[in-house]
Structure formats: C-alpha cells, structure tokens
Amino acid sequence: MKNLNPAQIRFLRAQAHHLNPVVMVGDAGLSAAVLKEIGTALKAHELIKIKVMNDERSEREEMLKTICETQKAASVQHIGKTLVVYKPGDEPKFTLPK
Q: What is the chain's mean pLDDT, rounded?
C-alpha cells in the first residue's frame, strides 16, 4: 500500500471517527489468528479500528507496523490504544482526495 498524503489521512480519520473497534488484540499480542481476523475485517470494511490491550506505546507502534506490512495496508492513526488501518478493496468504498 502506498503512503497516504495528509489530505487522505484527514479524510480517512473523519470517516473512522464514528467507527467502533472490530478487532481487539489481547495480552497474547499479534497471533496468526488475530492477523487473519484483521485481514478479514479489512476485506469487509476497508477502514477499521483495532483496540490493543497493551500499555506500552512502543509495542503498539510495532504492532501497527507489523499489521500494515503483513496486510499491505496503510496506517491512518494511532491514538491511545486505538489503531486505525486502511486497505482499499477491489471496488473501493471510499474515494480518496488527491
């Protein structure tokens, strides 16, 4: 996934504002099952929130990086324990600004 420009990030953050987390990462971290669930959610929704139950910011940032690399997705936002990730589908639901 290519990097998003600031206008696209603002647009996607606004779209994600009202969303509830669809995947929760527990104390066990990113297991294969969690990554598979994230992939399924991205295919279904394109833009998802992920709730991470971890107090270490650096570990959450590493999880976000791993998620984006394995799912070929783009990081939209990391605020607190919530991660927002975007991956366009075959027929994108969102028309990103240029």
A: 93
d(CA 87, CA 98): 16
7: CB partners within 8 A, 6+ apart: 97, 98
Question: Strand, helix or coil at 92?
Answer: coil
Enumerate the β-bridge partners of residue 79.
Answer: 82
> Is residue 95 assigned to a domain?
no
13 belongs to a structural domain: yes
Q: What is the pLDDT of residues 63-90, one digit of tens each?
A: 999 999 999 999 999 999 999 999 998 8
- Looking up residue 22, the CATH number of its domain turns out to be 3.30.110.60
What amino acid is encoded at 30 in this protein?
A: L
